[in-house]
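Morning. Coffee machine broken again, so started the prediction first thing and wrote up yesterday's gels while waiting. Chain of 442 residues, entered below exactly as on the submission form.
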Amino acid sequence: MNKTFVLDTNVLLHSAESIENFADNNIVIPMAVIEELDKFKKHTDELGRNARHVIRRIDHLRAAGNLRDGVKLNNGGTLKIMSLPKDAASLGFSSEIADNWILQLAVHLFKNGENVIFVSKDINARLKADALGIQAEDFENQKINLDELYSGFSEVRVSPDIIDTFFKKNLLEVKGIGNYPNEFIQLIDEKNEKRSALAKVIKPGMLTHLSNQYDKVWSVNARNKEQRLAIELLMDPGIQIVTLVGQAGTGKTLMAMAAALQTTLKFHSYDRILVSRPVIPMGKDIGYLPGSKEEKISHWMQPIFDNLTYLLRDIGQDGKKAKKKTKTSVQDKVEKMIQDNLIVLEALTYIRGRSIPGQYIIVDEAQNLTPHEVKTIVSRAGEGSKMILTGDPYQIDNPYLDAESNGLTYAAERLKSQSIHGHITLRKSERSQLAAIAAEYL
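Came back before lunch.
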């Protein structure tokens, strides 16, 4: 028996291609959803673009038949737009809430013998559906299993001979070790666990040593193994996109900024540093912000300023410690870099449609982006650019994303087999003892 998927508005706003992802089943879009899409279509953000895309796609399908009776999709399924019949039994819910109209239609179809599945990104809507006896699911086409998320690092026990050979050669070919390019492997002596070697995978079965140039970047020393591996990825010019996942205080943004300063200001590998973050507040929104675009953005970019302040304390633009203190404050140094266009702070809204060549691009808090938004941003990178995505999948402020459906973890998992991608999961907080305790126990 074919399934009938009743889609909530947030599914279409999350992924404009969602109506194509239900194979050869029936899709029902309630009239209330069409009305909600109409409210979003004028928005200039990703939600507005997805709303317009879905509306145009549905309008295009009208040429293939009648949307009320059902239109055939390319995947063998059918799409219908339905309104709630006048004779449908009332559920006693408020008629002013669109979700209630959508759920009432789902119940009506279920009572008429259809195998109904309600699909929504809204947890409360799914709870309501379940209470009404309707099977409810999240939209999982772009979800990954966080427990199985690629970490970028693994440990392998090997014979002492393999470790001896690895220390003698620049390259070591060992079948069965390493699954993805730029993965890190800790070779552990099976006869002596205290003896080990860190290796980097060039391709499955081919290992090489870590570079001896990256133990320290700008003024930052790696404080643990994962940070050292992250620096390797951030500094390697052959790796064009890096994903860093870790809880608060693990040093994701700090190391990304340090590597950006080193490669741009000291090595001159890039023309400038571009830093961006999603504009999503934690807690209650502070509302309208006065001032110019730069003044508005500065409020959202304060974590970036904090990292720059730390990195530029008593440090010159060449990355070397100043021999004597100067009257120039750290804030003045940062402002001078911004004025000289060496560091650009940009809202993600203004990145869409651009081509960005020759820049070291850092997208902080990328866990608040959808997979489609990450695709849009990464596709902006022009020739000679490097893209860094950082974030904590357990600290998500976007109401329709979770640890398994956000763009950061999605990118880390989907790109792991690409030779120009590198990923590492940072596990230890190094900000302070207090921050480490908060991350673990609170």
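Residues 3-137 form a domain with the Rossmann fold fold (CATH 3.40.50.1010). Going to sketch it on the whiteboard this afternoon.
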